[in-house]
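Q: Could you fold this chain for me?
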Amino acid sequence: MFQSLRIACRLRPGVRFAATAPVQSVSSELAPRPQTAVLMMNMGGPSHPEDTGPFLQRLFQDRDIIELPGGPFVQKYLGEFIAKRRTPDVQAQYELIGGSPIRKWTEHQGEEMCKILDVKHPESAPHKAYTAFRYAHPLTDEALDEMEADGVRRVVAFSQFPQWSCTTSGSSLNELWRKVKERKMEANFDWSIIDRWPLHAGFIDAVSDRILTGLEQFDEADHHKVVILFSAHSVPMKVVNKGDHYVPEVAGSVKAVMDQLQTKWTNEGKRVPRHILAWQSKVGYLPWMVPSTADVIEGLGKRNSKHVLVVPVAFTSDHIETLYEIGMEYAEEAEEHGISHFKWTEGLNGSKVFINALADIVSTHLKSGELYSPQYKMKCIGCTKPLCRQIINPATSSTSN
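A: Sure. Below is the predicted structure, expressed as structure tokens.
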């Protein structure tokens, strides 16, 4: 999550990723007006390296993700100053991976998901996916304008973070309600929210499938030697201490994946690999959730573990944290620590298993008539943010089904 803020820049020579241009939405005058919009909400990332500066500026000015001292007024100018200083180093990282592919994958997932939804839940069809990124284009207000232009009424705000955190899902939803109010759109749309889905069976299947594919990079005789290293973006301990749901929900996802794989391997008479959960992308000097992925890699090297498979468990598509931090920076560190077989799994990206899971999550949500999960209204202890855990103009039962 916060890798874009780091200045490490220990670049691995000779490794590059092809540039990935965003998929452009195709509209047609003959296309029917969407009855149901699915708003795909995520952090986003610079599709082109030259977009890094504005991306970092929006990120550093967001008090939901990083609360700098001095209040909103100071954060606006201090955030801009920090972003300008860090842009050259972070832009170099995006150049190495050819820009962030997160827009490409989000739009692909949304389009394919809606094709399935039109069949699974025809009473709310046609469905159309809209992308709303927090820090990169298309931004939240752009998505709102697009939905208004399409004449959409019913909208499902669908967080693309499987596990809830106030720094990610919460920030995206706070920005959504802020923009709705600013643009006086309170009465324009009927809303419901999919705010988390850490244990959804299809999501667990998709991660398990990536692990099984990842293990194919090792000799079959060595599978039992592999340490499966689940890596999730870290959060500051002050966020954890407030009661943020993220850490236990990530741990729940890991347990569900390993329970599924353990049953499979046990039934096949195979030895079950060991696993560990670690946290990446720490920023600054304050305490963050531990152990860090970098420290675990170093520790495994000292234990003479030669086979490691890193699994991004909180990222649903590849971006800088997977392509640069894991695929380049951690790969270099693993080599330095004597880990001769260091591999990592691809993001869920174009996985058909995952896209079917997204469609099932939305379809189940629409059929249930629920506005949000039971945990959505559970604010962190001491939270005073006025828009946090709110919903503007909630959908009625007649518009939910």
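A (continued): The two ends are 35 Å apart (CA to CA).
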